[in-house]
Amino acid sequence: MTAEPDHQAEEAEAAKAGPPEGGEALAEEAAAGEAVADEAVAEEAAADGAAAGEAVVDEATAGEATAGEAAAGEAAAGEPTAKPRVSIPPPKPAAAGEKGARRGLDSVAILAMLVFVLVGGLLVFGFAQALVPAAEAQLGAACRPLSPSPASGPVPELELEDLDGNPVSLDDFRGKFLVVNFWATWCEPCTREWPDLDVLASRLGERDDLAVIAISVDQEPELIGPYLERMGLLETEVKILRAKPPDAHQLFGSEKIPDTYFVSPEGELEAVFVNVREWGKAKGVRCVEASAEQSH
Question: 3-state secondary structure string, the chain?
């Protein structure tokens, strides 16, 4: 076996031998040691700078990545892919909106005017209609005690004559309010009603805007004179006429007698009073006067 050199013995001998000769050698070794130390420091500084640079590069890269992710997020938020796209109509031009508003105001103004005209017309019509029922109510109140029935239509044309046989027409009395009574000498209710007709005509005799007319439906005209004399009616102010033919009352709608009709100055039927009425009493006179005033 080959014996390995004893390094420890060599180092001990070297140490015993002491430092190398000459101060220059020691100075060179010290300078060399400092240079080595400076190089080590420089290497550490370079390493630190490189590490710092790499960190800066990494941060920049991370910033770019973050910016890219933010941009991608904004793009994703701006254009969603999960929801369907909806078309939004473009806004109307301002001019069109102004025209529409102006057109709307014009429509409102026209509508308001129409409503005003309509309401005004209704008020006028309602006022006029209110006057008619008021007048009719007044007339109805005056004649209510005599229980009238409504009648309408033009007065029928009758062939009439006076007690002297002269032809007469109801048109001869046009312009006057007429109280037309149908009677006969053989009619007992007519006989009871005659005195009231006589009183009515007497009380209204001074008025030239109305007339009381008694039309006989007797088939024998020669009986009328003696009847009037017996009743004391020869001087009556009632206009006594005779109908030809004697059923003239049926043209007015009467089936029996006595019946009394109110005829307007224009020749229109206004009311009928069936059977006997107390015309000579205050309620009868009041009814005739109120009706005559209403007709005029």
Answer: CCCCCCHHHHHHHHHHHCCCCCHHHHHHHHHHHHHHHHHHHHHHHHHHHHHHHHHHHHHHHHHHHHHHHHHHHHHHHHCCCCCCCCCCCCCCCHHHHHHHHHHHHHHHHHHHHHHHHHHHHHHHHHHHHHHHHHHHHHHHHHHHHHCCEECCCECCCCCEECCCCCEECHHHHCCCEEEEEEECCCCHHHHHHHHHHHHHHHHCCCCCCEEEEEEECCCCHHHHHHHHHHHCCCCCCCEEEEECCCCCHHHHCCCCCCEEEEECCCCEEEEEEECCCCCCCHHHHHHHHHHHHHHC
CB 179 within 8 A of CB 260: yes
Instruction: Let me know if domain 148-295 sits in CATH 3.40.50.1010.
Output: no
Q: How far apart are CA 276 and CA 197, in angstroms?
A: 10
Quick one: how far is CA 296 from the chain centroid? Answer: 40
The model's pLDDT over 92-148, given as tens digits with 9 standing for 90+, comes to 555 555 555 555 556 777 877 777 777 666 665 554 444 345 445 555 789 999 999
Domain borders along the chain are 148-295
The pTM score is 0.56
Tokens matching residue 151: 């009648």
